[in-house]
Design goal:
A two-stranded antiparallel ribbon has the order 1-2. The protein contains 3 helices and 2 strands, in the order ααββα. By secondary structure, it is an alpha+beta fold.
């Protein structure tokens, strides 16, 4: 199965609401008022990265700060040391 076959529509607002506007990588709160490209802005992270065969689906995405997500890149979360925003 190709990645395009695994994609489903995902609304970022639904992901952030489900995750309580909490970064699933560092555990810190995500402020919905912080705008991209601020490192503290909201982003949607693929738990198993697309590059490693993960699906673009609600069960494979989570809320993350843009900075945390960028630092994670195409790694599995256990391979990344969390960073804390203050």
């Amino acid at each position: 199965m190709e990645l395009a076959d695994q994609a489903e529509p995902i609304a970022p607002a639904d992901v952030h609401a489900r995750d309580g506007w909490t970064c699933q990588l560092c555990g810190g709160p995500i402020d919905p008022e912080v705008a991209w490209p601020d490192p503290k802005s909201a982003s949607v992270d693929h738990i198993v990265p697309l590059a490693l065969g993960g699906a673009h689906s609600m069960i494979n995405v989570q809320s993350a700060h843009l900075g945390c997500n960028s630092r994670k890149r195409d790694k599995i979360v256990d391979e990344v040391k969390p960073i804390k925003f203050t």
